[in-house]
Amino acid sequence: MNKKACRQRDRGGFTLVELIVVLAILAILATLLIPTMTGYIDKANEEKIIAETRMAVMAAQTVVSENYARNPEAWNDVRLDTANPGEPENFLEEIQALSEAPGDIQSVEIKSGKVTALSYANGDVTCEYQSGIKDDEGNEGEDSEDSEEGYTVTRN
What we know:
- By secondary structure, the chain is α+β, with helices and mostly antiparallel strands.
- The chain contains three helices and five strands.
- Strands 1-2-3-4-5 form a five-stranded antiparallel sheet, covered by helices on one side.
- A hairpin with a 2-residue loop joins strand 2 and strand 3.
- The longest helix is centred in the first third of the chain and has 55 residues, at 16-70.
- The protein is rod-shaped.
């Protein structure tokens, strides 16, 4: 063998075919991983809006508890929403400020001083909170036969 051929062999590097094979493998892996990663992102966004809704529910329960102690009769079967702020006063803004959630609280339902339902929207995503109501004996009330505590996320 001559010296020129040995020098070419000693030079490290990839051939064009090897580079194309590596790129093809990377493209196949990317097509498999991208849908999986998108699913993780969607799940994370869903968990985020549920966490924001939980903050709103806690804020609403705090405001209701403070005011229920002053006037229990005014907090039986109350619905606060953006169209009808509700009686005894408009507490929706106070709940919104206390929750520090970036979205908007659409409505809050209160029965016997307890937050039973809340609707929260952030952008094109809406989360509904629903809680079962129990009486003093621990039995579920008539309004909550098929209702469990839970969060439902929907995209608009």
